[in-house]
Amino acid sequence: MKPLNSKLQNEWIALNEAEETLKNLGFSYGGGWEYDHGYFDYKLDDEVGYTFLRLPFHVVDGELEQKNTVVQFDQPFLLAHKYQVGLDDNAGAGNLSGSFNQFSEPQDPDASIDHKWVKIAKGVLVEAENKLLT
């Protein structure tokens, strides 16, 4: 994980406005949503794993399912994860179902981030700031 400085941090924005603007820039809802916070993710790379620019936010007025919800953005960051090559060392059959766990443990769940992705992410972040803060 690599934190990034941003003009978005601590800004309050209507969630529906942020969603529409960010989806038009290629962001999608990230995993890990809760009742009071969530993420917008921009996929930068997915060849040997994935690298995302993540814009975290938390609710300051309303609830995530409501139309007029207001969110505050937290510090954006880059998130990288490398897939394990080959079979998972911990894979095994389930005791009751006889099914196999087909998902590999990550090789590096907090992988280092290539400088080229940092540079690209900063450009995407500036574009998002310009669209959301004007």
TrEMBL record:
This is YugN-like family protein. It comes from Fictibacillus aquaticus. Gene3D superfamilies: YugN-like. InterPro entries: Uncharacterised_YugN-like (IPR014967), YugN-like_sf (IPR036491). It holds the Pfam family YugN. It comes from the Bacteria.
